[in-house]
């Protein structure tokens, strides 16, 4: 899709302030699930009582060992929907191993962090195997005792080819954000991994969108899956969407004026290119804003530092390319600004999904020249 093909009206959508009539009432509480007591204690210590819709519907099926297809927007709690029942599986058979494939290293690290939170004190270990980082510590990690490998498809394939990872050791696989892996050209790597796994494996598949290509992969990878869809609409009801008309030269000044407003407390600004994002970030710093950037040309360490500063509130503005749009779960992002138009409507949906998470309200503004 070319940039000028998306109807600008799609970027205007007032958030619904009134409560939805069809208020979700979960069928379970976390305490109802047939899971290990130590795990229940951790869940309760995290303050979780009522599951989100995807957790409510998926956990019981995963506990029964069924293959599951979950169609859910990001920010719906799907990570816990697969981690909780899989941790329970490991508690019952400590030699079990689980492979979790994800599109980006940020998402891999986020899942790893969440896993460590749930598994505290349980002697359950994970290895994060992602590209853009030194492979040697990852190889060393795979020589030690572990239950979970969380990785990006290219790096996992590399480790298999180096014989550091044996797929025959795994009986459970999670494909998270499968649509994004497809978009990023990982389909052959995904097939390579799935072909190397046991026929009678347990497969969990999550995607925010359902296309004919995704349906094809579901047919290839899963056996009689339970399908769970909690995707209510493309964009969150909590995100107030609007456009800002700008004339070419004034774009940066308009952004400057917006960022000076009090309510713009934690803002992600999306640009199209790595170079453009870096340049814009530097320009904002020059103008006195606490800004940083994340894009593919930055080292992994620098990206993580920028994210940590933004999460902690030391940075007000994070300027990012679309690689950062998927999977990032940062609390209390007040605004998303599309400084450059997204390439596709799907990219737009993922970008603005960084704000208005959970029950919070958010604002998404798209600059139209």
CATH architecture of the largest domain: 3-Layer(aba) Sandwich
Strand order of the largest sheet: 3-4-2-5-6-1-7
Shape: globular
Q: First CA to last CA: what distance?
A: 18 Å
Largest sheet: 7 strands, parallel
Task: Tell me the number of strands.
Answer: 13
By CATH, the superfamily of the largest domain comes out as P-loop containing nucleotide triphosphate hydrolases
| SSE ordering | HHEHEHEHEHEHHEHEEHEHEHEEHE
Structural domain tally: 2
Count of separate DSSP helical elements? 13
CATH class of the largest domain: Alpha Beta
- The CATH topology annotation of the largest domain reads as Rossmann fold
β-strand percent reads: 15-25%
Give the overall pLDDT as a whole number. Answer: 86
The poorly predicted ranges are 15-23
By secondary-structure content and strand pairing, the structural class works out as alpha/beta
> Helicity range of the residues?
25-40%
Report the C-alpha radius of gyration, rounded.
Answer: 21 Å
Features:
16% strand, seven-stranded parallel sheet, alpha/beta, Rossmann fold, 369 residues
